[in-house]
Design brief:
By secondary structure, the protein is an alpha+beta fold. It is built from 4 helices and 9 strands, in the order E-E-E-H-E-E-E-E-E-H-H-E-H. It is 20% helix and 34% strand. It is globular and about 35 Å long.
Length: 128
């Protein structure tokens, strides 16, 4: 299982990369393995406000449907439209072409509550 060192993670298995005021968000390799083949994804619409820790979409796989949570507060500025035609990109490249959406991070928002790669790795190992 891959846990890139440059990212931060949520306990719900989302990853986030923050550059300047924009956060790119997806689900982790661990999540894709637990879900199985992703067949559909429902992402938040551009312009919608999202709140850290709150559901903002869904990921449907051959095994289940799981909610997608935003790791940060802000406004959705872009969604990965490639996933409409090829949701399997999430399984193939969860940290690359399988990214899900981008958020302009709200002023004054900090990335508190996010896990470091070491903390996330420990979480997934304790989950079994």
């Amino acid at each position: 299982m891959s846990v890139p060192a440059e990212l931060r993670y949520t306990q719900e298995h989302e990853w986030v990369s923050i550059e300047a005021d924009t956060a790119t968000i997806g689900i982790t390799d661990y999540a894709t393995q637990a879900l199985g083949d992703v067949v559909y994804v429902s992402l938040p619409e551009v312009g919608v406000a999202v709140t850290a820790g709150e559901p903002c979409g869904e990921v449907e796989s051959t095994k289940s449907v799981s909610e997608l949570y935003s790791p940060v507060d802000g406004e959705v500025v872009e969604v990965n439209e490639e996933l409409d035609d090829d949701p399997g990109l999430i399984n193939a490249e969860p940290y690359g072409l399988g990214w899900m959406f981008r958020v302009r991070v709200a002023d004054g928002t900090t990335a508190t509550g996010l896990l470091s790669p070491t903390e996330y790795d420990a979480l997934t190992k304790s989950a079994g």
